């Protein structure tokens, strides 16, 4: 199997101690967070079809009508390991309100690395096996974790590259879940927690 851009960066020794906390990346600007965009400036999230741990094909379009936290991650990524318990919590708390977490693993070793991790960490959300093609559809996922929050219409409402706080995610999720119709919340920002 060809090495992904993440493996090449690791092989080249491009990851330092600071990147462990910020994000696993070969770029220097690995931490950027954007608050929820207003409705009119959101773009459609690229659709994809990827396999889940059971071998079923999952399309992002299957989740239209739900608020989706789409997380690109890997089992070896330190900041990803910090976020995963938060995502497990969000899935449990908000799934009955039309919310779903989708994890897209970018592990080069595929399911041989990912399936044991899912079992060990007791992930309660769907995990898919990604690739550079899907990463490129999302603007070139060069840093892990990279997370997109999608509104109920399948549009990108927020993007986070690197590790951000649990409260930032939660505020944005709640804002998107509380939108009552398509243009509700346009221009609103999530409440500040600092």
Q: Would you write up a description of this structure?
A:
The protein has helices at 5-11, 17-22, 78-94, 111-121, 132-137, 166-178, and strands at 24-25, 32-33, 43-44, 49-51, 57-59, 67-73, 99-105, 126-129, 143-144, 146-150, 155-161. It is an alpha+beta fold. It has a single domain (5-178), classed as 3-Layer(aba) Sandwich (Glutaredoxin), CATH 3.40.30. Strands 2, 3, 6, 7, 8, 10 and 11 form a seven-stranded mixed beta sheet that branches. The longest helix is centred in the middle third of the chain and has 17 residues, at 78-94.
What is the mean pLDDT?
82
> Which word captures the global form?
globular
Poorly predicted regions are 6-22, 25-34, 181-194
CATH topology title? Glutaredoxin
CATH architecture: 3-Layer(aba) Sandwich
In angstroms, what is the radius of gyration? 16 Å
Fraction in helix: 25-40%
Please report which band the strand proportion falls in: under 5%, 5-15%, 15-25%, 25-35%, 35-45% or over 45%.
15-25%
What's the order of the H and E elements? Answer: HHEEEEEEHEHEHEEEH
Number of domains: 1
Let me know the CATH homologous superfamily. Glutaredoxin
Total strand segments = 11
Could you give a short account of the major beta sheet? 7 strands, mixed
